[in-house]
Specification:
alpha+beta; Ribosomal Protein S8, Chain: A, domain 1; eight-stranded antiparallel β-barrel; DUF7905 domain-containing protein; DUF7905
Amino acid sequence: MSNRNGPPPHGAVARPANFGRPPNRFVRVPPEYRRVTLFRESERLAHLWKIETNCEVVSHWDHSKIVRFDVYGSGSNLDKAERQINDWILNANTKSKESSAWAKCPAFDNDKWYYKEVQEMERERKQMFKHPIPEGLEVPYKIVVDWPKDLGDHSEPVIPKDVFGTGLEALDTIRMDDEVWITPLDLRRIEISGFDIARVDSAEQHYFTMIQKARTSKFAAPFPLHMILDDREGMDVLLEEVERWWPNRTSHGIVPRLIYHPMMNIPGAFRQDGLHFTDLSTIQRAIQLALESARYEKGYYDFCIRYGCFALSSEKMPHSEIGKNYPKEHFLKALETRIDSEAKKWLFPDKEGDRLLARLVAAGDLLEPTKSAGFFGYKPPSLDETRPMLRGTWVFHDPNARIVNTQVFNRHPGRPGPQKQESNEKTKAAPTYSLIVVQIDWTDDEEGVYEKMEPRYFQLRPGHAGPKQNMDIKLLELGEGRAWQFSLESMTPLSKKLVSPALRGFADQVQMKLCYDMHSKEGFAEWPNIKSLKIHTGRLDKIYTFGIQKTGYKVEAVSMWYPQQRAPCWGINVRHSEWATHLCELERLPVGRAADWGDTVSTFLPDNGLTSSVTQENGDDLGVPNLRLSNNIEPPPRDGIRLLMEKLMKLSEVVNSSGGVTIGNITVETHEPKEKPKEKPDVKLKDKKVTRKY
């Protein structure tokens, strides 16, 4: 008797036609979305998805419930199949198992059938451009493109097959989009042929863009930059232990501080002196190279300048180094070669953060009111009426990540052990996890009512616990143990329909606490505890935004709640209001294209500080008119970088100022009253003594 009207046996799996090879994608059914399913329903769904997505879907069962789908397919068809599977999971509990198992026979739609057939014929027609030109077919337009000499004749030559693969497989998207054949003639020449001269010219431009991408990565790759701003205030660097209020004290556990020398400049004098033009040129060059490298890569990018506590990695700087001091030159060389460092997102603990906010509110000669969330939010009439934007960020382990088999099989006691093989240190282990980021914002209106925005989803690189860092520029204020870090972080944006229903359900249930007091020291959001989701980390941000007068730059004072922290800590971010607009081009960047930024320096560092102006059109230089192919040749600094650094130094004065400020009729102490300092033991520096002053 057939079992199609009932559930399959426990642990049953429908074997696919291509059984034996691993599936191309997994889609797991979260426990809270599972229901008893009849076998004939799974057969009907598999048949339907096979027709609509051209993918084979295999279901895995456990106690009459589907627990996982294995998807076999390729390309964009995998995304289509995953979207339909996620839709079925979300709606599965809304119907009974009997009604869901009924055979569905929708009415015939002639228009839908016609357009589907046309799309299928068009897809098959474009597939022919991935193969050689058919014999006997006359193609009217052909051009031959030579490989650039600066790449082919370099000491370490790069040829097309090194960049695009042996058969130029990386150019398949250009072949299909532009409907041309791209054929290698020899090691350094290719032929582009097609039926339309406009499409051939378009393919040539896209090919040149891919070449420029290879040239940029070869000759103009971004370089790390460490610059000590207060280097004329001391000669030696003392290594100290991080303070106890830090949310994370394990990965970076040592703070370097410049020991003040009485025969050198007064502490903080560098903020009034400004930077030398060669330093400004170096910073401008480093920013330009990082942005030029990113303009060819698709993804979500966030460009900001954060001011935070500066710390050294605990891996190559053990805790036994705490208390030691090193010459400033040796310390800087170690930073550039072997020691990992980072400007943390946090700057002050809770109480000092409140005083930081008071100093920013009182800085009316530098700051002005602005909207808290770019195009959204409400612009307050004065600085002291600024209301924060709220943001919640949660990082989860991907529920649909591929399972890595780590099972160790028992061996018979009489069987000899396997022969040990030499491990190759250069071969990296396969990543064992993949992380998904869920981000939700709340913005306010004129009445002070906060509205929850649409959740956004991102995917991190496999095996990495944070965004990709595309810029490494650190300007150190070692006397304070802090640094300005220019950060360009990137993640892969995810469509909502490609996200696991468990994550979508979590985002829908996150809500702001009722009658929440913005002056409260507790977190502002509450969310459910979903057992099927494994959270990696998270953070709640309360962001106060202020505009820098006569510029488009904004200062963000961020109050952050980290896991297992009762009180928040505070940080400072600086960004331009147009940076997000320019970088959003990269979220939907097609293959063979580059972001249309014109002159990168004037676009991201406008001379007037307000709006960028593209003064040159994209021509033969492919939109990078000022990109030079040597890190040793630096163009002179422009007014844009001068203005930005001037504002950063003024902001540093406000952040590190002491004393009290007056807001209305109330005086707020910006630092805790200091007790009479106790005598501290002298810190020995080789053969001389220097008393450290805090």
